[in-house]
Specification:
With 259 residues, the chain is of the alpha+beta class. The chain is built from 8 helices and 11 strands. The model has no long low-confidence stretch (mean pLDDT 82).
């Protein structure tokens, strides 16, 4: 049987409805509806919409997700038929935070709504992250110090761009890739983002390029954070200059007091 036929059979059972009552509600014969459940016929696009509205489940879920396997209460059914699923819980009752590997970033762009792909990911649990949906994304480059290669940013999924807060940092999943940036402002066409490393110029991401947004909720470092030696040298030179200037000021004061 197809996923669709299994799903409508399962949903009808959950409702405790008969095939006849469902058929009456969507204005077709019981025999015609039964053929959908038996996977003998496929519904037209118009009929698919009616069935989707009757069960209050998106067409995307009906066609792609085995609802008998994934509790519909634990599936985030998103606008534009996009899915982040599921909110999995460990035996200890803690959220399972899926880890997107450094080598699999592009795979995430094609598999973020595929339950088999999500299930194949490793995961971790953090007891202080309970309410919401979280995932861990890898950071690359030096645009957001001190986070660099070897760091994972744990993001909390936000469902609407209206929840974006100026000055906060987010993982933006775009059609081009995964970027970790600080949110500036938004307009009708997109939003401006910036790096904490001022070497990189701010830029704009158009709304139609954005797939998901995850708000910073924590980080995990797999490498020890290092401060380059030249930074220590810069600080040392600065303190040396300040010390010399203080000595000059003290000398001037001494001369004035002596007069």
């Amino acid at each position: 049987m197809s996923i669709f036929s299994e799903n409508i059979r399962y949903l009808r059972g959950k409702l405790g409805a008969s095939q006849q009552s469902v058929a009456d509600s969507i204005h077709i014969t019981r025999g015609r509806y039964a053929k959908y459940e038996d996977d003998v016929n496929s519904p037209s696009p118009e009929m698919l919409i009616k069935i989707s509205r009757y069960y209050k489940v998106s067409i995307d879920l009906l066609l792609t997700i085995n609802l008998n396997k994934y509790s519909i209460d634990h599936i985030l059914n998103l606008p534009d038929n996009r899915i982040v699923l599921p909110i999995k819980v460990s035996n200890e009752g803690e959220n399972k935070i899926e880890i997107i590997p450094h080598t699999g970033q592009m795979g995430y762009l094609s598999g973020y709504s595929d339950p088999e792909y999500i299930e194949s990911l490793q995961y971790m649990s953090l007891p202080f992250l309970r309410n919401g949906k979280y995932r861990a994304f890898p950071v690359e480059g030096d645009s957001m110090p001190p986070y660099n290669d070897g760091t994972y940013i744990i993001g909390k999924y936000i469902e609407s761009k209206d929840h974006l807060k100026k000055g906060k940092s987010y993982m933006f999943i775009t059609r081009e890739g995964i970027v970790y940036k600080r949110f500036g402002k938004q307009n009708s066409s997109g939003m401006s983002v910036s790096s904490d490393n001022t070497f990189y110029e701010p830029y704009e991401i158009e709304w139609n390029e954005i797939i998901e947004i995850w708000e910073f909720a924590g980080s995990v470092n797999t490498k020890e954070l290092e401060i380059p030696n030249n930074d220590f040298q810069v600080l040392k030179n600065m303190f040396g200059i300040l010390q010399n200037e203080l000595e000059i000021i003290k000398t001037d004061l001494s001369l004035k007091n002596g007069k």
